[in-house]
From TrEMBL:
Any Gene Ontology biological process: phosphatidic acid biosynthetic process
Listed name of the protein: 1-acyl-sn-glycerol-3-phosphate acyltransferase
SUPFAM superfamilies: Glycerol-3-phosphate (1)-acyltransferase
Domain of life: Bacteria
Organism lineage: Bacteria, Pseudomonadati, Pseudomonadota, Betaproteobacteria, Burkholderiales
GO molecular function, one term: 1-acylglycerol-3-phosphate O-acyltransferase activity
UniProt KW keywords: Acyltransferase, Lipid biosynthesis, Lipid metabolism, Membrane, Transferase, Transmembrane, Transmembrane helix
Record domain Phospholipid/glycerol acyltransferase: where: 64-176
Family matches, as PANTHER family: 1-ACYL-SN-GLYCEROL-3-PHOSPHATE ACYLTRANSFERASE, 1-ACYL-SN-GLYCEROL-3-PHOSPHATE ACYLTRANSFERASE-RELATED
Pfam families: Acyltransferase
Pathway(s) of this molecule: Lipid metabolism
Keyword Phosphoprotein: no
UniProt cross-references to InterPro entries, sorted A to Z: Plipid/glycerol_acylTrfase (IPR002123)
Membrane-spanning intervals of the chain: 12-31
Length: 246
């Protein structure tokens, strides 16, 4: 079963690469988002991951800066399966086999750690994308964290929402098993490689991914640190985690 799922996943990756190479250069943002949504849903189905919208959430804005807690490489595809976004991610993801190329061609913006010049260039691009009406998303923890934990948020990229005068939309992500307990296979931590994580998920029990869309926060006139704290507290509250001050 594991080998069969792995083969299906690889084929699906190659299909996505073909679409990115042949179709994406000729279509607009809305059509791209449709392809990304359908492809992400199929990917999750192959990985035995079902996606549900947590009750009590709000309808996400079509134009906003989306921020979410970070648990797994699955996070990007769970969000894209519901509300396609243009993501900001760490540069290391570009080196992942197949998946790195795909997320790059899907419009992901990569940030190299410690590169301030790169960050300034990317920041200007994010402001432009937000002002152009795109939904841009990133994980302000800067790394993955165990379920039941929300690390402090880095505030730098929140400045793009302030400059673009757009709302900040927090998403709370969690992964549970059939009994509603945190799923042990999805966490992507420490020295675990992308390949090891893929095998753990494909060979594990079914996963239910929950996305809780929280009320948007107005960034117009706000300070980036205030926005980061407000988004952190909203996500921590939705996940039942004690908020952190910073």
């Amino acid at each position: 079963m594991l080998i069969f799922r792995l083969a299906r996943l690889v084929l699906h990756m190659f299909y996505g690469m073909a679409v990115c190479a042949v179709v994406f250069p000729w279509i607009g943002t809305a059509a791209r988002n449709g392809h990304i949504l359908r492809w992400s849903r199929r990917l999750l189905k192959i990985c035995n991951v079902s996606v549900e919208v947590a009750p009590g959430g709000v309808e996400p804005l079509g134009h906003a800066m989306v921020v979410a807690n970070h648990v797994s490489w699955l996070d990007i595809f769970v969000i894209d399966a519901l509300y396609p976004c243009r993501f900001v991610a760490k540069a290391e993801i570009r080196d992942w086999p197949l998946a790195g190329w795909l997320v790059d061609k899907a419009g992901t913006v990569f940030i190299a750690r410690g590169n301030r010049r790169d960050l300034r260039h990317i920041f200007k691009g994010l402001v432009h994308s937000l002002q152009a009406g795109e939904r841009v998303a990133f994980f302000p923890e800067g790394t993955t964290a165990p379920q039941g934990t929300v690390l402090p948020f880095h505030a730098n990229l929140f400045e793009a929402a302030v400059d673009a005068k757009v709302m900040v939309q927090p998403f709370a992500l969690s992964y549970v098993d059939r009994d509603g307990a945190p799923h042990p296979a999805v966490e992507f931590l420490g020295e675990m490689t992308f390949a090891q994580s893929v095998v753990a998920i494909l060979g594990g029990k079914p996963v239910r991914a929950r996305l809780h869309s929280l009320p948007a926060i107005d960034a117009d006139g706000a300070h980036r640190r205030e926005l980061a704290q407000a988004a952190h507290d909203a996500i921590a509250g939705a996940l039942g985690v004690a908020p952190r001050q910073y």
